[in-house]
Amino acid sequence: MNRRDSLKSILLGSVATGLALNGCSSNETKPEGMPKPDDTPLYGRTESEKLRDKELFESIFFNEHELLTIAVLCDIILPKSPAYASATEADTVAFIEFIVKDIQEHQIPMRGGLMWLDSFSNKLYNKEFIKCSEEEQFYICDQIAYPGQTKPELIQGEAFFTRLRNLTLTGYYTSKIGIDELGYKGNTSNVWDGVPDHILKKHGFEYEEEWLAKCVDQSKRGDVAQWDDKGNLIS
Length: 235
Prior knowledge:
Order of helices and strands: HHHHHHHHHH
Helix content: 40-55%
Distance between the termini: 48 Å
Number of domains: 2
Radius of gyration: 26 Å
Structural class: mainly alpha
């Protein structure tokens, strides 16, 4: 099982643990801006919910530097590969931005964590995190990516990275790209071939061939049954 599959298992099992950190990121990654309210379908929403969504889309919390930093971190956590899309390709940054504005409990830990990250990067390399080389970025993340193995003085960084990793996985695997990657099909009609013959015989019943043709024909299982005015099955 590779790292990506491990992340899937953790997401599907609702388990939050430390993970090995490998893969590639790009220092040139630029996050997508939040979609405008008019571009975002709000089906099944009450008027008050639509208004709140509109306000959240139009409000600003992260600045450009913070969004760029989040983008780099997201693609370190879920990098692009020949088989998979990167986190930023699934608009994970926009998802994180929206969630942080929607759930205020994330705001101080996220902003404080980004400040901590730049401070730690400056101590090590005398430059901000996004200006570091990939090797330097990986080294920094390695120090805070393994809960239970982090040095005491870096616990704040560990808490931030864990929060961001959870948001990244949630954003990616609830996007169309992530859902397709998981192979999730949603609710689909099952295959029913009727009551087994031995059960029917045990109770003295059998199907009429006419009803079998109408009701247990798997080629028509997606069709909606049609009835006449007297309640007789037409097709």
